[in-house]
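Translate structure to sequence.
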């Protein structure tokens, strides 16, 4: 690589013809996939057409894929031959012939992976064009001195500056230049071809010098940067073929505004503004609208951050906007923030199983059957609920209004997953501004349907005994509620309920009624 001092002539203006990014292209250019294309009716040789494009920092158009082909066809004249950026690959080695045959490629030496040739290129063909009356197919020719129309391509992220030329790198309003790469010298034989320089001795080789540091110092952070190739001040990295300047760049926003997209009422919201754009006329003046009727003036020194703290007092969705002016420049940025109340006081009020209603302290459900839980929170919107048993989460759901009671269904499959018995469920609720989440515990007893109920009296003399022993067994359904009905000789009945928590148990029934018999 050659070592040479680099000097750039940099001018800052508020207008030029090139634009970085996918924004609109100046007339009569047309935008497609991040590049601007211009269809030129003038007739030039292949080298002359390429030179015409290079005057504005572009090159003859590349057609890398079918989509680009279709786009160009919409703007091409089927009655015209038009040069495109196809040529024979050539070596930078001055000992090789500049016209030595190689495969056809795009001017940047990239391979032709998509093609639309009318016929296979003949040996000796050195450049390519769109063939008229062919349905926009391509043709290759050995006569590159033919005078044809042509189309130029101006890439949004790269510019080529030939000797004696000046181009402008420009970003859209409110954006700044960021230099990604750059060199001066030559890496490609087809760009900025000199009509006067010739190979002299084998000791004269082509090279290039990295100029990223110099480009960054002069253009980084500006909206517009004019670059003039300054001749001898660049040195001579490639004496045999001449030199050019290549710049890779992109555009970023002129200032950034960073903030959370959601926050809780009465909490500090930090808004960070960093000004990146180098103003052309004085220090930028910025005003911030918080979206809830408050306005703040922002001191934004270039390259530094300004931090503002604001508290919102009511739930709402606010548009936060920064408006900055500097001379003729006017840039804005907007963010949306949602202000919410955090979730508080989650509660379960009751459960429903079939036609039965249970208080939350006595929630029951049948195994294999769905049941519902009614719940709400005291405050909060956009609530995410989560129901889990130990470490297993088996239900999650979302509601908009948290302070309205919602009946949440637990499916039969989920009930089976829990299984028979009493289970401690954890119900959690949160939204984007609730940290940590709130939760409550709920016990749900899953009961099997009663089946195989059998009972036998163990007491021999029930009529004269004040204590009657009854042996009860269940095939399934425990725990269950048993109802004992006892009737005496005097037709007086007695009823007693007992909880049965196992599949087999002995119950002792005592009552002073004489002549009582078990029912």
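Result:
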């Amino acid at each position: 690589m050659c070592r040479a001092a680099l000097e750039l002539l940099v001018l800052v203006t508020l207008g030029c013809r090139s634009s970085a990014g996918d924004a609109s292209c100046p007339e009569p250019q047309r935008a497609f996939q991040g590049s601007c294309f211009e269809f030129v009716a003038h007739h030039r040789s292949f080298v002359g057409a390429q030179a015409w494009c290079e005057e504005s920092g572009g090159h003859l158009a590349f057609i890398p894929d079918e989509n680009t082909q279709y786009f160009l066809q919409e703007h091409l004249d089927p009655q015209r031959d038009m040069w495109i950026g196809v040529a024979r690959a050539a070596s930078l080695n001055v000992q090789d012939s500049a016209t030595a045959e190689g495969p056809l490629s795009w001017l940047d030496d990239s391979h032709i992976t998509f093609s639309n040739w009318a016929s296979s290129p003949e040996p000796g063909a050195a450049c390519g064009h769109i063939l008229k009356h062919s349905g926009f197919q391509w043709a290759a020719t050995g006569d590159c001195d033919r005078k044809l129309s042509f189309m130029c391509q101006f890439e949004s992220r790269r510019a080529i500056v030939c000797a004696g030329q000046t181009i402008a790198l420009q970003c859209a309003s409110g954006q700044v230049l960021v230099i990604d790469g750059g060199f001066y010298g030559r890496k490609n034989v087809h760009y900025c071809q000199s009509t006067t320089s010739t190979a002299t001795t084998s000791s004269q080789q082509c090279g290039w010098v990295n100029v990223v540091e110099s480009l960054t110092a002069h253009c980084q952070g500006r909206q517009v940067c004019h670059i003039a190739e300054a001749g001898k001040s660049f040195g001579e990295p490639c004496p045999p073929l001449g030199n050019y300047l290549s710049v890779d760049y992109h555009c970023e926003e002129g200032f950034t505004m960073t903030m959370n997209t959601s926050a809780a009422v009465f909490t500090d919201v930090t808004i960070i503004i960093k000004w990146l754009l180098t103003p052309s006329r004085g220090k930028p003046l910025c005003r911030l609208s918080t979206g809830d009727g408050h306005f703040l003036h922002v001191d934004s020194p270039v390259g530094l951050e300004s931090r503002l703290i604001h508290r919102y007092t009511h739930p709402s969705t606010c548009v936060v906007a920064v408006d900055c002016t500097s001379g003729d420049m006017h840039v804005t940025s907007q963010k949306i923030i949602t202000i919410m109340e955090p979730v508080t006081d989650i509660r379960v009020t009751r459960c429903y199983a079939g036609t039965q209603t249970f208080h939350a302290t006595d929630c029951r459900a049948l195994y294999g059957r769905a049941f519902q839980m009614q719940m709400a929170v005291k405050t909060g919107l956009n609530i995410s609920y989560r129901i889990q048993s130990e470490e297993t989460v088996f239900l999650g759901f979302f509601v908009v209004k948290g302070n309205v009671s919602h009946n949440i269904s637990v499916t039969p499959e989920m009930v089976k997953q829990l299984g028979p018995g009493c289970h401690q469920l954890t119900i959690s609720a949160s939204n984007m501004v609730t940290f940590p989440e709130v939760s409550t515990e709920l016990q749900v007893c899953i009961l099997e349907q009663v089946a195989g109920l059998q009972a036998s009296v163990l007491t021999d003399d029930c009529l004269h005994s004040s204590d009657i022993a009854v042996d009860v067994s269940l095939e399934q359904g425990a725990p269950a509620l048993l109802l004992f009905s006892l009737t005496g000789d005097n037709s007086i009945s007695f009823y007693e309920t007992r909880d049965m928590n196992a599949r087999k148990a002995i119950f002792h029934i005592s009552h002073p009624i004489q002549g009582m018999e078990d029912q």
